[in-house]
Amino acid sequence: MQYPELHAAFVVLLVGTQAFFTALAVLDVRHADRLVDRKRAWLDETLGVDDPDEIRDYHRLTTAFSELRSWVGLGTLLVVLYAGGLAWAVDLLTSTGLSTVLQGIVFFAGLVVATQLFSLPFSIVSTFGIEEIFDFNQQPSRLFARDTLLTLGISLVFTVVLGGAILAFVTALPTLWPLAAWLLFIAFSLVMQILYPRVIAPLFNDFEPVESGALREAVEDVFERAGFSTSDIYTMDASRRSSQLNAYFIGFGRTKRVVLFDTLVDSMEIPELQGVLAHELAHWKEAHIWKQFAGSALRMGIVFAALGALVAFEPLYVAFGIPETSTYAGLVLAVLIVGPVLQFTAPLANRLSLKHEREADAFAADVMGPEPMVDALARLANENLANPFPHPWYATFHYSHPPIPERIRLLQERPDADDGSTEADGTAGVAAD
Asked: For site-directed labelling of 51, which of 136, 198, 276, 303 has its Cα 20 to 30 A away?
């Protein structure tokens, strides 16, 4: 084996990263277990949780299953690499006589299919096992199969187009290809803001514009209070797949839209829905979409610069027994190395998102008053069995939204909030230690 020190660093990086995040997950579960026991009264009074043990059990099971999936995936990856699977695939593709770009397209497409096949058993267990146990799953097996095949098809299309383009850049612009790939990423991200809500999302769900009735009146009321002209608000038939609640904002210009899950509409009172809508409108008013986009573009610029250096690093090819001309294989190895670095820099991206979410909560409180948003957050946490007490270290790496107790505390501390229970303050303080 050539370059043993490189292999040692590679394995330590991947295994060490996974071990670190597994340790965080274990820490998070233990922390949540203690807080759920200590804060049962707050969970009942503030979130309306009748059975705190259900939240704890769901959190334990989903965390354990996620870690199992990650470790099995990492083990499979290392076995394939060190059993010569990558070198075998490169030799097979080289023997076809195809150009490097076409070899790479076939290689990336094969990776997509292999990844989907690996994930399939885990997805089945998660959907029809864990989610079924906790009464979240609503989708029949036929819809699950359709979603899986459709996701595979879309992934293959994007992989062929984007992967082929990047490999063409590597061939045509040996030193400048990271810049070209970065510009492609920016262009693709902008196009997806238009393409996803108009083309891709409707392949999976039906979207109905909110045009009349009490909900429409409530929507118009929020827009008027917020100083906006009424725009595109849609309900999505999320109940076809899950009973969990959510809402999101996407797009820009004429393509922007707020989407409310039908489960959210059916479960919440009108004032709570108005609080959620005002929160989503804040992302528009405060230009959060563009700020997040700029942050992501900056982060990916650094990533592509690192990929450029690694793809040109000849010992990486020699260590894994592949020719230096197989840049597509080198790119995959480079992504495996850069991936952990991205995981460890997640707190930087989360920091920006946390700031935006707090601003959105404050905007919702300015528009509708604090109570509707407090009630909406409580209902979201209750209905989704969300862990309200993440360990601070775990939240730093994984949470793009502040923990529910912190959000409720900040809303209740506002001068215009009703004078309510103070226990949420203590809860949020403990959770943020």
From this structure: 276
Q: How many C-beta atoms lie closer than 10 Å to residue 118's C-beta?
A: 14
Q: Quote the distance between the C-alpha of residue 427 and its chain's center.
A: 26
Cα gap 47→374, rounded to integer Å? 9
Weakest-pLDDT range from 232-246, 297-311, 397-411: 232-246
Instruction: Show Cβ contacts of residue 404 under 8 Å, excluding neighbours closer than 6 positions.
Output: 47, 377, 378, 380, 381, 386, 388
Nearest residue to 276 via CA among 238, 306, 304, 248: 248
Q: Taking 50 as the threshold, does the pLDDT of residue 423 lie above it?
A: no
- What are the tens digits of pLDDT across the range 114-164? 999 999 999 999 999 999 999 999 999 999 999 999 999 999 999 999 999
Q: What are the structure tokens assigned to 16, written together?
A: 């060490």
CA 23 from centre of chain: 21
What is the SS3 assignment for 38? helix
As a whole number of angstroms, the distance between CA 323 and CA 104 comes to 13
Q: Give the pLDDT band of residue 228 (cuts 50, 70, 90).
A: confident
End-to-end Cα, the chain, rounded Å: 47
What is the widest separation between alpha-carbon atoms in the chain?
Answer: 75
3-state secondary structure of 241: coil
Domain holding 331, by residue range, is: 1-433
Domain count, the chain: 1
**Given the DSSP bridges, would you call strands 257-261 and 247-250 parallel, antiparallel or unpaired?**
antiparallel
Length of the chain measured in residues:
433
Contact between 284 and 256 under an 8 Å Cβ cutoff? The reply is yes
Quote the pLDDT of residue 253.
67
User: Which pLDDT does position 425 carry in this prediction?
Assistant: 35
Positions marked catalytic: 280, 361
Is the pLDDT score of 84 beyond 80? yes
Under DSSP, the state recorded for 258 is: E
Query: Rounded to an integer, what is the distance from CA 279 to the centroid of its chain?
Result: 19
pLDDT band at 315; cut points 50, 70, 90:
very high
Task: Kindly state the DSSP code that residue 242 receives in the 8-state scheme.
Answer: B
Helices (H), 126-261: 131-133, 141-158, 164-172, 177-195, 201-204, 213-226
Residue 234 has what pLDDT?
A: 87
